[in-house]
Amino acid sequence: MKKLRVGHVGGRSVYPHLFNIHPRTETVAVCDINPVALENMRATLGLSKSQCFLDYDEFLRKADLDIVVIATPIPFHAEQAIKAMENEMHVLSEVTAANRIEDCERLIRTVKETGMKYMLAENMCYFHFIREWTKIVREGRLGRIYYAEGEYIHQVRDLIKDPVTGELKWRAYRPPIHYISHSLGPLLVMLDDCVVKATGAGKRRYTMPDLETVGAIDMQVALFKTEKGATIKILRSQVVAREPPSHYFVLYGSKGCIENTGFRLGEEWGVMYVEGEDEAVRRIECPISTPEAPEEVRKWGHGTSEYYPARDFVEAIVNDKKPPIDVVKAIDMIIPGIVAHEAAMKGEVWLDVPHFE
User: Fold this and answer.
1) Delimiting residues of CATH 3.30.360.10 domain(s) in the chain
2) pLDDT tens digits for 117-170?
3) Which residues pair with residue 226 across a beta bridge?
């Protein structure tokens, strides 16, 4: 059986290793503009120098690929995905899919016109406890979900401004709330919903006062109204003085609530309460990794949460079906953040969120 040929652009991804151990795929090419990162990938993967490319267009032209995995800085994601699909290659893209509304539209249009498969590798949707919560919500045990929160608080100042040279990096120009799919994505999957209206707040820069770019905004919060009538709040910061990083979720329904409380302490536990089932709130486990996943995949990423997107994407190609996080769902996970930042800059107004099919 012929294996699907996979090429990777961007040197920090774990996916080359995961596709190398998948029985239906093989990593045959890598691309990075940094020669050191490229050589590190080549040596780790055991590739020849002819399988390594510094130029993306040459990579697409010469590598004879079935799949392109995009793990470059976010501003390049949409353009590189579009080019790959126009060259008849399927695309698995790291988050986020795009950082401009017009690029979201272009991605949707390109998938339609080319017929190629596109999937967003939103690994948070594949954390084991998120998948278990999705079953709980879909079974109706919490009743009608009317409110949910997500927050991703993670200090990455060194990735915004080089502490030695003072050089500004690409994250200096990324508003915190743009990096929203880690928080909003799992909630939309659990609720099987999409956002229709958004507002946002957050402009100040107390933590990095000498930096006047949007990436230095201390914290941004967004409020969303969904198509099914739920309210969602998302909190984001990339400069905050906090340890450990916090990746928190809570859902409130007409019959109960659930939250991963321990993640704010760097621990994998939470609490749940369901009327008629529980006399009081009870502690639950919230593991990242899926117990039945192969042991060899655990060392490459965030538990097993990169293994399952890769597996599902290959299955979608082989069986010619829609990927779990296809281009429509991918855009639904990111475009609310783009709109929320615009709303914050306009004075915390409410704005419509477009939905593309």
Assistant:
1) 128-290+327-352
2) 999 999 999 999 999 999 999 999 999 999 999 999 999 999 999 999 999 999
3) 195
Alpha-carbon span 335 to 287, nearest angstrom: 29
Q: Residue 14: what pLDDT?
A: 86
Place of tokens 């006047």: 212
Fold classification of 128-290+327-352 (topology level): Dihydrodipicolinate Reductase; domain 2 (3.30.360)
pLDDT band at 302 (very low <50, low <70, confident <90, very high): confident
Which tokens is 297 given? 């995949």
State the DSSP H helix or E strand holding residue 75, giving kind and residue range, or none if neither: none
0.90 exceeded by pTM: yes
Q: Which of 267, 270, 230, 236 is nearest to 252 (CA)?
A: 230
Q: Where in the chain is the domain with CATH 3.40.50.720?
A: 4-123
Q: Name the amino acid, one letter, at 203.
A: K
Average pLDDT value over all residues in the chain: 96
Strand partners, 257: 252, 273
CATH number of 4-123: 3.40.50.720
Query: pLDDT tens-digit profile of 189-236?
Result: 999 999 999 999 999 999 999 999 999 999 999 999 999 999 999 999
Q: What average pLDDT does range 57-84 have in this prediction?
A: 98
CA distances from 281 to 148, 278, 328 (A): 18, 7, 37
Question: What mean pLDDT comes out for the span 314-333?
Answer: 98
Helix (H) or strand (E) holding 62: helix 56-62
* Residue 325 CA: distances (Å) to CA of 46, 95, 308: 31, 11, 12
Of 72, 3, 69, which Cα lies nearest the Cα of 37?
Answer: 72
Which residue reads 């012929």 in tokens? 2
User: Which residue type occupies 258?
Assistant: I
Q: Where are the beta strands (DSSP E) in the chain?
A: 4-9, 25-31, 52-53, 67-70, 90-93, 118-120, 145-153, 195-201, 220-226, 231-237, 246-253, 256-259, 269-274, 282-285, 351-352
Report which residue type is found at 23.
P
